[in-house]
Amino acid sequence: MSEGQVDHDFEDLLGYLKRNRGFDFTGYKRSSLMRRVSQRLRMVGVAGFAQYRDYLEAHPEEFARLFNTVLINVTAFLRDREAWDYLSTAILPRILAAKGANEPVRVWSAGTASGEEAYTLAMLLAERLGREGFAARARIFATDVDGEALAHARHATYSQSAVEGVPPSLRARYFTRANTSFVFDPEVRRGVIFGRHDLVQDAPIAHLDLLVCRNTLMYFNIETQNHILSRFHFALNEGGYLFLGKAEMPLTRASLFTPVSVKERVFRRAPRAAPPAPPGP
Ligand SMILES: C[S@@+](CC[C@H](N)C(=O)[O-])C[C@H]1O[C@@H](n2cnc3c(N)ncnc32)[C@H](O)[C@@H]1O
């Protein structure tokens, strides 16, 4: 089914999820959303979306499985290493240079999944500010709509394979080994504040110097992306930076963000358009 066609049973199912679980999937790209929900239909052995809705009513434990299938939590430390190197060497120094020595630095990792992105930011900022400076000045807000992913993030404990992408020098400074797992430094972890936040429905976190939203916008249709990008514009300080994923561009909201590096998907909040000049005499 193409983006434009409407499947009424599917729309009913989305309405049911919104009314019963407060989760609004209507702004997600239809084709990939349908594909993912259909995987669940096959798993539980029902033939159509209407029957699946009945199945959900009778089996409330299925909601969690459905959300896990739809909300793709794939992530990694320093995911797309080159882009993070650029952020670390070209953008973080600019953000810090524009601040007074004791001024807070506010960052939001939106759609943070299981925390790897937020802890990547924490390590890169702590490297620049020093541990004391980081503790005194850095606030990293890390949010996701997925409660299970956030629970994992708060736990700050990762497998050997998850930390493989972290350069050995950073791994040695910010992780402690506990049996087969790696635990993120509890002192630095205190600068990361996790919370549940729905990009579609909740008011944004404000007064930000840097907003990192990677590999999340791409799940939404253009209209919803526009709505989220307008909120991001509001959330950022004048001249604040927006860091998107490799496959994402704020194209339809180009007037709100000026490219800093299109290759690395870093943009800067453009000033608000000046109000129209008053009519002349
Ligand atoms: C592919 S992961 C991206 C993780 C990380 N930002 C990265 O780039 O590695 C997408 C995340 O977006 C989250 N997400 C999906 N819909 C959301 C919404 N409406 N509000 C907030 N987060 C959402 C999912 O739960 C998932 O954790």
Short description:
The chain has helices at residues 8-21, 30-44, 49-58, 62-70, 81-97, 116-137, 147-155, 160-163, 168-174, 186-189, 222-235, and strands at 105-110, 138-144, 157-159, 175-178, 181-184, 192-196, 208-213, 236-244, 257-261, 266-269. With 281 residues, the protein is an alpha/beta fold. Helix 11 (222-235) links the parallel strand 7 (208-213) and strand 8.
DSSP strand tally = 10
Biggest sheet strand order reads: 6-2-1-7-8-10-9
Bound molecules: S-adenosylmethionine
- Kindly provide the radius of gyration, computed on alpha-carbon positions and rounded to a whole number of angstroms: 21 Å
Structural class: alpha/beta
Reading the helices and strands in chain order gives HHHHHEHEHEHHEEHEEHEEE
Strand content bin: 15-25%
The largest β sheet comes out as: 7 strands, mixed
Provide structural commentary:
There is one protein chain. This protein is of the alpha/beta class and 281 residues long. The chain folds into 2 domains: 8-70, Chemotaxis receptor methyltransferase CheR, N-terminal domain (Chemotaxis Receptor Methyltransferase Cher, domain 1, Orthogonal Bundle), CATH 1.10.155.10; 81-269, Rossmann fold (3-Layer(aba) Sandwich). 44% of the residues lie in helices and 19% in strands. It is built from 11 helices and 10 strands. The strands form 2 sheets. Strands 6-2-1-7-8-10-9 form a 7-stranded mixed β-sheet. Strands 3-5-4 form a 3-stranded antiparallel β-sheet. Helix 2 (30-44) packs antiparallel against helix 4 (62-70). The chain is globular. The model has no long low-confidence stretch (mean pLDDT 94). The structure holds S-adenosylmethionine. Residues 71-75, 79, 111-113, 117, 144-146, 149, 198-200, 214-216, 219, 245 line the site of S-adenosylmethionine (SAM).
